[in-house]
Write a structure and sequence with these properties.
The complex is a heterodimer of chains A (182) and B (182). Chain A has 182 residues and is mostly helical. Chain A has 4 helices and 2 strands. Chain B has a single domain (17-180), classed as Beta Barrel (Lipocalin).
Chain lengths: 182, 182
Amino acid sequence: MLRNNADSWGAPAKLFHWVMAALIVAQIALGLLAVSWRLSPTKIELFFWHKSMGMLILALLALRLAWRLASPAPVLPADLSAWERAAARSSHALLYLLMIVLPLTGWIVNSASNIPFHIFWTIPLPAIVAPDKATADTFALVHRGLFVLLALLLGLHIGAALRHHLVKRNNVLARMLPWGTP
Amino acid sequence: MISLGLCGAALASLAQAADWKMDPSGSRLEFVATFEKTPVPGVFKEFDTRLRFDPAKPDGGSLDVTIRVTSADMNVADVNKEIGGEDWFDYAGFPRAEFHSTDLRRAGVNRYLARGTLSLKGMRQPVDVPFTWAASADGAVMEGEFAVKRGAFGIGAGEWSKSEVIGADVKVKFSVKLRKSG
């Protein structure tokens, strides 16, 4: 089953969700290690992988959004209250937004720093802003601030999924599991 | 009489090899390092070239280049801050580099080779500098490029000597505008 239907997620949507979940966790670890590492070849390697993964995540997100438009998400359980529906919609919208804006702000930092960069040593990344130290510093702060917001939202996302499963006892979490066919 | 004649002949042959001086505004000395297999260009903004050269008879000529290493600019603020340190150019210890050659030879039509010694960061290494020669109404332009191993000069010491992140080869490119100085 490829397409989503009213009750369940198709295989492509699950694959996008779990592959990107794994990439984002790895990406957060890489980013935190990269900023805290002392200046050394290892630090440069960490930033290199962080930047390459960021661009991979952005590219995957474009495909994921296209798929989501082509194959709408399953409906929420009928017993959810209005605030729960609003919270689910807005937190998912914000997660998608952050998956776009975090790579973009990172891209701006790289461009403003004027660092030549090839994604995974192959595809040259064009600059999207002119080299400027103030721009680089400002967007580095924005990038970090957005990361904190993302970390909070991921906590909320996981907490809400567990609440659906353990408290409300619906299939919202189970139907996203790779092996789950509720 | 014979010795005077020989002396005169020697003077005459010397006179044919003209002295040339560099026009700094029309001259450029670049170096291209690699960073995660991506070229990162830099320039030495201040350098000077003295040449004793007869394109028709290169033997007996000489080429002397002095480079103010501290004028290096790699266009990335963070990188510029680092390259003056002890692990890299060590501005404090070695602010100048020099290239001297008294072995100029023809290598083809308008092509020559200057075999000499590059002194950089306290290391002296033999370097072959190929160049083309283009005479113009008001002087001449010599251009060329060659590669050096940064490790041979201790550029990138300690953990930076590994070449996976910062490549081992650095390309040097030059275009020097010269005027006859009599």
